[in-house]
Amino acid sequence: MFKINAQQEKPSDTASIGKLAIYDLKQSVKGIGYSFSRPAHWKKKDFTTLGTFLVGSLALSTIDDEATDMFLKNEKHVPNFLMEAGQRFGKPQLYFATNAALYGVGLFTKNENLRRTSVLIISSSVTTGVIQSLSKTLIGRARPTGISQGLDSRDFKFWADDAGFHSFPSGHTVLSVTMAHAIAKQFNNTWTKVGIYALGSISPMSRLFAGAHWLTDVGAAAFLSIVVVDAVDNFLFKTKAYDYPQKEKKIAWNFSFSGNKVGVIGRF
Question: Residue ranges of the Phosphatidic acid phosphatase type 2/haloperoxidase domain (predicted)?
């Protein structure tokens, strides 16, 4: 059982950079362990949320092919710089370089807010990254790029090594939403949050217009990222690993569906 330890040997503001770095590394590892252990401690509401998500995803999957057709037809209307930005930021190399820069500034200036945010990002990214990588191979869903070969959203090749069957979930979305949600949680201003989420949505949307993923690939990836970031952030808050001047205003995320409407709703 993974227990929350409220007593932390937190270094002071005058501690050396090396000591701060070791402390942050320990919190990152603990955060990863905590997030992976959560399913063993789920309660009724957690299973209800999972059930709602699964049923909603199944409902959304019924329009995957039609939605992809729409995105592909409108790809020519999307500015090239947005498509390029979405493609580049979703790549692990740039993603982790960006977070390394963020952490580096926080470490050398001894800015605890930046360090905490970076620890939240890396812990959540490792967790979601492992889950999405395993899921891609295990589920083996065909990508929209296979349409020319007669494939559609209902074609699967379990335990596939072929990248053409690594559609579910979207890796670009996992990374983009993980970073956007982790950063947005550090602000209380609604419009600032909206702006951050808007930037975080560029990569997922670009993948849809590029025909690299189905709508449910992106939806599932976003859901996974939000759940993991919230879990790790809750761990860091409860253990008092870092200072939280005030518990930031939460966004209540709900996956809803009714009739012909399916979506993720965030209540500020």
Answer: 121-233
User: Which residue do the tokens 């596939």 mark?
Assistant: 160
Instruction: List the chain domain ranges.
Output: 17-267
Q: Which long-range contacts (CB under 8 A, 24 or more apart) does 2-8 make?
A: 2/33, 2/34, 2/37, 2/40, 4/34, 4/235, 4/238, 4/239, 5/239, 6/238, 6/239, 6/240, 8/239, 8/240, 8/241
Whole-structure pTM value: 0.86
Which residues share a beta bridge with 258?
Answer: 261
Per-residue pLDDT tens digits for 97-135:
999 999 999 999 999 999 999 999 999 999 999 999 999
pLDDT digits over 66-101, tens only? 999 999 999 999 999 989 888 888 788 888 899 999
Q: What is the pLDDT of residues 208-229, one digit of tens each?
A: 999 999 999 999 999 999 999 9
What is the domain class of 17-267 according to CATH?
Answer: mainly alpha
Within 10 Å of residue 7's Cβ, how many Cβ atoms?
A: 7
Q: What is the sign of the dihedral through the CA atoms of 266, 169, 186 and 46?
A: positive
Count of CA atoms in the C-beta half-sphere (13 A) of 171: 22
